[in-house]
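Might I ask for a little of your time on a matter of protein folding? What I wish to show you is a protein chain and, alongside it, a tokenised description of its three-dimensional fold. I should value your view on which stretches of the chain appear to form regular backbone elements. You will find the record immediately after this paragraph:
***
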Amino acid sequence: ENNSSIDILVRELEQQNDTKLLKWNADFKKTLTNHEILSQSILFLLAGYETTAHTLCFISYCLAMNPKYQDKLCNEIDTVLDCYDGKISYESVSEMKYMDNVIDETLRLFPSVIRLDRVASQDYEYNGTVVKKGVVWSLPIWALHHDPEIYPGPYEFRPERFDEQEKRKRDNLAHIPFGTGPRNCVGMRFAILEIKLFLSLMLSKYKFSKCDKTPETIDID
């Protein structure tokens, strides 16, 4: 019997084929096939590999260039892990709220996707402008995340921008590194969990620091 993570997932889903997760609706009881489960699992791993790796590189850079924020994050990691006997787990990283700030601010500065493309499903009018059905329009995430009217000093790394009281001052759509709505990134929570586990492991033992070759700024082509 195989015991890879995907095999375990398949067996678990087969045993729970009456759950809402596997139903299209109560009448048809359409479940995921083994092939569909395997395909989605591989998609999660492959589609999130490069983008997550890039985000971790940018986080490492931002922390190395801003040691006071790195120290604050390390203190949070140490404090939380002390409450869990040093165990890094889903439960422990879920309590690391300042780490969420660091991740969100890095994704604001360096979003994995610089724009979103959408197709209008029907005619839509906004402030006198009509968008016809079938028109493809783009939302410039990079420009949105670097708008000085929304984020003063937009090119500065400031994790405190994402404190709860600060977020309440902005529109919910001012920060959309994973998109938004029904077609947002399906792997968002998986990617965030990967990042938090990595940072918890690394920063509980080491620190990031710059060297003579570290650029003061990163130019994105």
